[in-house]
Amino acid sequence: MDLKEVMAINLRRLRHAKGMTQEELAERAGLSARYIGAIERARVSASVTVLGQVADALEIEAGDLVRRTRPTGQTTRSAEPQR
After folding, report:
1. d(CA 83, CA 80)
2. What is the set of domains in the chain, with CATH numbers?
3. 49: which residues sit within 8 A by CB, 6+ positions away?
4. Comparing C-alpha atoms, which of 50, 54, 70, 73 is closest to residue 14?
5. Does residue 52 sit in helix, strand or coil?
6. Cβ count within 10 A of residue 52
7. How many other CB atoms are found less than 10 A from the CB of residue 11?
8. Residues 44, 38: contact at Cβ < 8 Å?
């Protein structure tokens, strides 16, 4: 999964968690609702400036939008080689 898709999934999840519509988020971020929708569908790559605007509007850290999440119960593997 590329970062565009990761951001799309995280943006939708975080926006819903805040109880915001795409229109409300767009207004707070100074963007169009159509552009927010395109980001959520992974149709466009958001610039770092837009990433910051969206994060500020959601009152989160920008890194939260591009952080890959793991399914519940899945553990991370050690970076050490197996013997």
Report:
1. 9
2. 3-66 (1.10.260.40)
3. none
4. 54
5. helix
6. 14
7. 24
8. yes
User: Sign of the CA dihedral 31, 33, 37, 43?
Assistant: negative
**In the structure, what pLDDT confidence band is assigned to residue 78 with cuts at 50, 70 and 90?**
very low
Q: How confident is the model at residue 76 (pLDDT cuts 50, 70, 90)?
A: very low
Integer Rg of the chain from CA: 15
**Alpha-carbon torsion 7, 67, 13, 28, what sign?**
negative
pLDDT at site 72: 57
For 3, other C-beta atoms within 10 Å of its C-beta total 15
The answer to whether 62 and 55 are in contact (CB under 8 A) is yes
- pLDDT tens readout for residues 21-75: 999 999 999 999 999 999 999 999 999 999 999 999 999 999 999 999 766 555 4
